[in-house]
Amino acid sequence: MRFVILIFLFLSSTGISFSQKIQPIAPLPSSKQIQWQALEYYGFIHFNMNTFTNVEWGEGKESPSNFNPSALDCRQWARIAKAAGMKGLILTAKHHDGFALYPSKFTTHSVAKSPWKNGKGDVVKELAQACKEYGLKLGIYLSPWDRFHPAYGTDEYNKIYAEMQKELLTQYGPIFEFWYDGANGEGPNGKKQVYDWPLFHSMVNKYQPNAVQFSDNGPDIRWVGNERGYNYDTSWSPINRDEIYPGYPKFDQYKNGQENGTHWVAPEVDVSIRPGWYYHPKEDNRVKSPDSLMKIYVASVGRNANLLLNIPVDTRGLIHPNDSAAMMGFAALRKKSLINLMNANSSKIQVSSTNNSTYSVKNLVDTNPASAWAPLVSDKQPSIEITLATPLLSNTLMLQEPIALGQRIKSFSVEIESENGDKWLIKAKTIGNKRMLTFPERKVKQIRIILEDYRAQPLISNLALYRIISVRNESLYH
User: Fold this and answer.
1) Which residues form the F5/8 type C domain (predicted)?
2) CATH number, residue 374
3) Which residue among 109, 123, 229, 295 is the one 20 to 30 A from 98 at the CA level?
């Protein structure tokens, strides 16, 4: 007995313990970045002066008298967003033309000068109240570019912008995301602004420390690199943040993140439900279909990103019925498609090894993103084998990593066997928060996942098998 005790003490003193926790690998997400990633899907509201002038980018010369919605109802926006499954709404409080949707003390170009509510209105306030009523989070877009403000292009403008930030960050309750735009052109005096990013970031950190900040390089979350609704097959949340800046001309070199990046700055996919970001009547019949939105979801949330879907509010101040119908159809597709067939079918899961009871195979199906299965360190090609008791029609495999411990998987492969014995192979790169791999629909009998390369001991937190279907109840992935 004494010999056994001595052996145990020796193993413990050298760090070789069967209950030893797996160490995280840097960089790591902060708690607010983890909470943001869990939101997955929320909305962008592009509604401003451009809505009434029927353009995408205003010039700053527009008269405030143009802004006069006849039936503005932020409760309608929030009600539709909630029914669509969105977790929050981000509002364009000021676009490049400089017109502010709230009565700012630091610009003369705002709703205070408009005929709407006799200059007494405040769109930000109304949306904040509506979001609170419907249990949604509120986000703010405030373009640093200002084609109206006479101070733009001077050091004074940076202080003015920071004061406008303070107004928005202190008067409307909790803000979950602050959205900067990388556009930087000339102001009314023909000058460009050198933005004081440290000042801007400090304002959010001071007044809304739980809010994430978005730009090309974060500091908390970043642009995905396109506005077409998809992330890339290889997607690292780590990125060399200090090498880039908003509007960086060679951003394509950073769009995938970096395997050994210095900071955790996960991507956000921003895309509009219509061709344009603002409402244009000619686009009423060009709203993306529920099927298209479902494919966007898989290519964004299913590729280690969050989805920010833009809804252009019309000149009445309402979400158009065509946009609302598409959003409801998209919500219905997610509800009937994202059902884990493995759980419903009493699947058998076998793994090549297990590190210890803390990292059990049971963690693969507990839906908890913080728990995980881990193989032994000596297992050089860890694998997971799923056998379905009854072959089931499916076309999508979902995997997750426990991102609180860092992003680890560099490459993996999936072998799928159908009911009739046909087999096919999928090669893939990163996983991250969530990865959805689609394949031609088959009655699947068995799936084998092989973790081929990784930055540190691999961890998988959850697995799911889906059949993602169209509005016609047909496979979206033939």
Assistant:
1) 349-453
2) 2.60.120.260
3) 229
